[in-house]
Amino acid sequence: MAKVKIFGAPGCRVSFQLRDFLKRSSVDFDWVELKSDDEARQLPGITDLGDQRLPVCEFDDGVRLYRPSVRDVAERLGFLAKPALQEYDLSIYGAGPAGLSAAVYAASEGLKTILIERCAVGGQAGSSSRIENFLGFPGGISGAELAERTRRQALKLAVKSFSSRRAFTPNLSTENQAEIESSERWERGNPGDSGSSDFGKLQTLVQGLGQVESLLDVTKKGG
């Protein structure tokens, strides 16, 4: 049974963002495309396809979220746990293949490691249907499966992983520790972020930021 059902109108950008996040996070979900006002009205509180409360996310415990952000859904799924420690030996920004690999190697050496990702574990590679140039998989592997396998390995080694979190830019103090503060570059593309800082002092910083996607502001015109 799917953990989440998403009900939305065709071409809805918010619906696409939510589906993309869930797919890249290996969360089972059903997408229900509403094709008429009558179908939309089957949802409690929704009047038609143009209702600003769409899309609606329904979870397997019956809870519904109306027009949620990615962060809202991640929080509901339990992805936004607070860090257990006030200080970490190593902080890695970006949970693509490079960041995940660095986390595994660091944790295996006994370093207290935290892995921070603004969207979904796997990064850009997580959305790839086939990766054939990654070490150890001569037959190839999907990006989502690679990300999930590496994530499980990192968690087994006690890496603390936090997705859908605002990332930060280091501000080196006199003790040469990275005290983190908000970064506008990472705030973009993370809708619904509260903007609060969740992390403490970090001894060493590794950045595997990859690409930052931008959405074109294209207005649909008739004619």
Taken from the alpha-carbon principal axes, the silhouette is elongated
Percentage of residues in strands: 15-25%
The CATH architecture of the largest domain can be named as 3-Layer(bba) Sandwich
Q: How would you name the oligomeric state of the polypeptide chains in this document?
A: single chain
Helix content: 10-25%
Number of domains: 2
CATH superfamily of the largest domain: FAD/NAD(P)-binding domain
- Write down how many β-strands occur, each being a DSSP E stretch of 2 or more residues: 10
In the CATH scheme, what's the topology name of the largest domain? FAD/NAD(P)-binding domain
Give Rg in angstroms.
19 Å
Could you explain the architecture of this structure?
The protein has 223 residues and is α/β, with parallel strands linked by helices. It folds into 2 domains: 4-76, Glutaredoxin (3-Layer(aba) Sandwich); 87-207, FAD/NAD(P)-binding domain (3-Layer(bba) Sandwich), CATH 3.50.50. The chain has 6 helices and 10 strands. The strands form 2 sheets. The protein has a 6-stranded mixed beta sheet. α4 (97-108) links the parallel β5 (87-93) and β6 (113-117). α4 (97-108) runs parallel beside α5. It is elongated and about 60 Å long. Mean pLDDT is 77; it is low at 167-197.
